[in-house]
Design goal:
There is one protein chain. The protein is α+β, with helices and mostly antiparallel strands and 165 residues long. The chain has a domain of 105 residues: Alpha-Beta Plaits. The chain has 5 helices and 5 strands. The strands form 2 sheets. The protein has a 3-stranded antiparallel β-sheet. A hairpin with a 4-residue loop joins β2 and β3. The longest helix is centred in the N-terminal third of the chain and has 14 residues. The radius of gyration is 23 Å and the shape is elongated. The structure holds iron/sulfur cluster (SF4) (2 copies).
Length: 165
């Protein structure tokens, strides 16, 4: 059996701590400090373009989680579908992005935000106007490089470390 003197472990631990005191940090103090995330992130919400949406329900059919529900009616005057209700249960959504890829009319986008935790189950279900874009609900560049160009450049920790040196 290997013999180790009492206190050697503590000294080793302290040595690691002291060494790190003089190193450049490789993490940030979230949430006080934040880095720009990838422009093509698949945030945990969907953004819906009401004007472009035709109510074809391709997004709902392609969702492996059954997280999208669409109710349409037919407009006899304009001879087209009208979306009465579009509902996304982000509690079931796994942010796979398949619905966004499947939408033939570029009416659905992944969100850029990632802090969307809620206290109540019902609050993660979003419908109609709640799915529209707004300054707080930005579209991600996932699947859409033009949108990605408009978003802030991703902060890479390795660059941050290099800049600080
Ligand atoms: S991202 Fe994936 S899981 Fe979420 S609603 Fe779209 S298809 Fe469904
Ligand atoms: S696939 Fe696109 S156009 Fe069709 S219902 Fe879904 S969001 Fe609307």
């Amino acid at each position: 059996m290997k013999f180790e003197r009492y206190g050697i472990g503590i000294a080793k631990g302290l040595r690691v701590t002291i060494r790190h005191l003089f190193r450049h940090p490789v993490t940030v103090q979230y949430p006080e400090q934040r880095l720009n995330i990838s422009r093509r992130t698949r945030g945990n919400e969907l953004i819906w373009d009401k004007v472009k949406c035709t109510g074809c329900a391709t997004c709902a059919k392609s969702c492996p989680q059954g997280a999208i529900q669409i109710v349409t009616s037919t407009s006899m005057e304009e001879n087209k579908y009208e979306v009465e209700q579009i509902e996304v249960d982000t509690g079931y959504c796994i942010s796979c992005g398949l619905c966004v890829e499947a939408c033939p009319f570029e009416a659905l986008y992944m969100g850029y935000a990632y802090e969307r935790a809620k206290y109540r189950r019902g609050e993660v279900v979003q419908a109609n106007e709640q799915l529209l874009p707004s300054p707080q609900r930005q579209r991600s560049g996932y699947m859409y490089p033009k949108i990605a160009d408009e978003l802030p450049r991703q902060t890479l920790l390795i660059e941050r470390i290099t800049e600080e040196k």
